[in-house]
Write a structure and sequence with these properties.
Length: 493
């Protein structure tokens, strides 16, 4: 009987609150239904710091407690001096299937104040007046940030971007950070070159990657990748594989995950030197001893227009402009001028990024489908990559437009990013997206598929067409990077 359940619940709440209970059985026998039925059903509770009236917990008086039925407000009261609230006469929802929820509003909250949520939420019921919004996203334009700044400040709330220095962890191990002004600038080949230099010096190197969490985040507190089997075991997405797999192939252990203090602690146990391999255009999460920033001559000006890539550009010890063999010299000079103006102490290095093409003669005259790195060609805004360059430089008869063949989530990707051009972004944030990518590739009418992703995509999808892997490498070392690295890790020679 619902009323008896309410008696037990009420006694329990009274016990938690340290309050006495007055029980009046009535004048009839206890088994007579009319006596039991006099007990009302309802909602009761206590508004505290964390929703549970533990010993010493602050009881919150004067909060508005609103009961909603099927999303429609029906009762609104305020918590008393003990933080308590009672709503009587509420029909039990097992009779009618109604969905009840409760939301809380702090005293003095205005129209722009956030509301704390439903009864089964994990929100902390603390005072919820918002004084400051901190923007901590990456690879977005300053115009985008300013738009949101205006919206926030219009509500009387301060708006700031995150404190770069406060977000960096410290370690006793030497740290070399490889960052960029945008996603898709070519960090991977530079990071691999750095680890090669360190290996030649006889030093154990561990790469720590920017987080790319999906799914069960609790399982991803600390992730260690030393083999392809680790990628499978931890159910890595295509995007994660693109960042981890090249390091594994190069014999370097990779750490990633959610808790970077714990990640750094574990990585430091097996490393002489740590290489921070940043994602997107994020700043390092670990304070670097040598800070390298990669700029892209195909996107000049972005080094000043995107957050937080501009921070990398302004604070790096070395600014490396890659892909110069395919770039307009005027665009290269534009970046050099910006570097001299914004970071005059940085050393600027120019590097070619030669294409790795196993059999260039097989491209000539073919109708080619190009698969490029997903993040680079979507939110990175690049209309081409290594695959497109390889196809056009080696006489492909046609770049086949994959958009008419796109299915499922790949079709959604093209709708979200209509300016990708005649290429297929390798999107794979989940199993469904990977299968839609596979179906799209196999539906395309083409002679050859150029796979220009950092990973061997055929490990994850079956492609019915002939395939060829394309990639970038870094111009052979002229000693500049090696000298810079050596000065940090072996300062005494």
């Amino acid at each position: 009987m619902s009323t008896l359940v309410c008696v037990g619940f009420s006694v329990g709440r009274a016990t938690e609150m340290g309050k006495p209970v007055l029980f009046i059985p009535g004048i009839s026998e206890i088994d007579e239904i009319e006596t039991i039925g006099m007990i009302e059903t309802g909602f009761l509770g206590t508004v505290t710091d964390d929703g549970s009236p533990d010993l010493g917990e602050r009881l919150l008086e004067g909060w508005t407690v609103e009961l909603l039925r099927n999303g429609t407000p029906m009762v609104s009261i305020q918590s008393d001096a003990d933080g308590a609230y009672v709503m009587a006469g509420i029909a039990p929802n097992y009779l009618n299937g109604d969905a009840y929820s409760v939301r809380f509003t702090a005293p003095g909250a205005g129209p722009g104040t956030a509301l704390l949520g439903i009864t089964d939420s994990d929100f902390t019921d603390t005072l919820q007046r918002i004084d400051e919004v901190v923007f901590a996203y990456s690879d977005v334009s300053y115009d985008y940030i300013d738009e949101h700044r205006q919206a926030v400040e219009a509500r009387g709330v301060a708006f700031n971007t995150f404190d770069v220095d406060a977000s960096m962890l410290e370690t006793s191990k030497p740290v070399i950070a490889v960052t960029a002004v945008r996603t898709g600038c070519g960090k991977s080949q530079v990071s691999r070159r750095i680890t090669d230099i360190l290996r030649d010096l006889g030093l154990r190197t561990v790469a720590i990657r920017h987080p790319m969490p999906y799914g069960d985040l609790a399982r991803q507190k600390v992730q260690r990748f030393a083999s392809y089997a680790d990628l499978v075991e931890q159910e890595c997405t295509i995007e994660e594989r693109e960042e981890y797999e090249p390091h594994i192939a190069n014999g370097v252990v990779v750490y990633a995950g959610e808790d970077y203090a714990a990640i750094l602690e574990e990585a430091a146990k097996e490393a002489d030197v740590i290489v921070w391999d940043g994602g997107n255009n994020d700043v390092p999460f670990i304070r670097p001893d040598l800070w390298i920033c990669i700029a892209d001559p195909h996107r000049p000006g972005h080094e000043l227009e995107y957050f937080p890539g501009k921070v990398n550009f302004e604070r790096a010890d070395i600014i490396l402009i890659g892909k110069v063999g395919f770039a307009d010299p005027a665009k290269i000079e534009q970046i050099r001028n910006n570097a001299e103006r914004m970071n005059p102490g940085a050393r600027v290095i120019l590097r070619e990024s030669p294409l790795d093409i196993p059999n260039p003669e097989e491209i000539e005259g073919k109708r080619v489908l190009v698969i490029e790195d997903g993040p680079t060609t979507t939110h990175g805004g690049m209309p081409f990559g290594a695959g497109v360059l390889a196809a056009t430089a080696n006489g492909a008869a046609e770049l086949v437009d994959p958009r008419p063949y796109a299915v499922g989530e790949m079709a959604e990707t093209f709708r979200a990013y209509p300016d990708t051009g005649d290429l297929l972004p390798a999107m794979g944030y989940g199993e469904a997206q990977i299968r839609d990518l596979e179906a799209t590739v196999n539906a395309v009418d083409c002679d050859l598929v150029l796979v220009a992703t950092p990973i061997d995509l055929t490990r994850l999808i079956d492609i019915v067409h002939p395939t060829m892997r394309i990639g970038y490498s870094l111009q052979p070392e002229d000693g500049v990077l090696a000298a810079a690295v050596k000065s940090i890790v072996l300062p005494d020679g």
